[in-house]
Amino acid sequence: MINIVLIEPEIPSNTGNIGRSCVATGSKLHLIEPLGFEVSDKQLRRAGLDYWKDADIKIYKNLNEFISMNKGQYIFASTKASKRYTDITYSDNCYIFFGKETKGIDEQLLKDNYENAVRIPMLDDYRSLNLANSVAIVLYEALRQNDFAELNDIGTLTKF
């Protein structure tokens, strides 16, 4: 199972969209406080649609609590990283970290995990992509590398 870790997310609709992606892919969502919204937030539920009730979510008081409870391959997504998100191998039980929308992941945390920090290539003139879009891009690369384990990848369109 792929694990998505959001460090101090601020925008409920992003987290709702990410929760929906996690449900659809069988991934677990980890939220590290403080959150910029209440988990019962209307925008959060609206973005997650009827998927939100099925989301596998765990909330932690801080990063230290998360680290003490979860072991495995840690990957840190950031615009500051030098490796592309396609340059590393994702284990089937990895933890992919994303920072808050306004600041990203703490720079010292990135420096301490330099070999496991990845970025999504984009033009120099722009700060970043939307958080929910970034999660989807990296999540699907991790799933692709693990042959979309347990996911239905057969369409229903028939040839006429």
Tell me what you see in this structure.
The protein is of the alpha/beta class and 160 residues long. It is built from 5 helices and 7 strands; from the N terminus they run βαβαβαβββαβα. The protein has helices at 12-25, 42-48, 63-69, 107-112, 131-145, and strands spanning 3-7, 28-32, 57-60, 74-77, 83-84, 95-98, 117-119. It has a 7-stranded parallel sheet with strand order 3-2-1-6-4-7-5. The N and C termini lie far apart (37 Å). The model has no long low-confidence stretch (mean pLDDT 90).
Mind sketching the topology for me?
Elements: E1 3-7, H1 12-25, E2 28-32, H2 42-48, E3 57-60, H3 63-69, E4 74-77, E5 83-84, E6 95-98, H4 107-112, E7 117-119, H5 131-145
Parallel strand pairs: 1-2, 1-6, 2-3, 4-6, 4-7, 5-7
Helix pairs in contact: 1-2, 1-5
List descriptors:
alpha/beta; 17% strand; globular; single chain; 5 helices; 160 residues; 7-stranded parallel beta sheet
Structure described in brief:
By secondary structure, the protein is α/β, with parallel strands linked by helices. It has helices at residues 12-25, 42-48, 63-69, 107-112, 131-145, and strands at 3-7, 28-32, 57-60, 74-77, 83-84, 95-98, 117-119. It has one domain: 3-Layer(aba) Sandwich (Alpha/beta knot), CATH 3.40.1280.
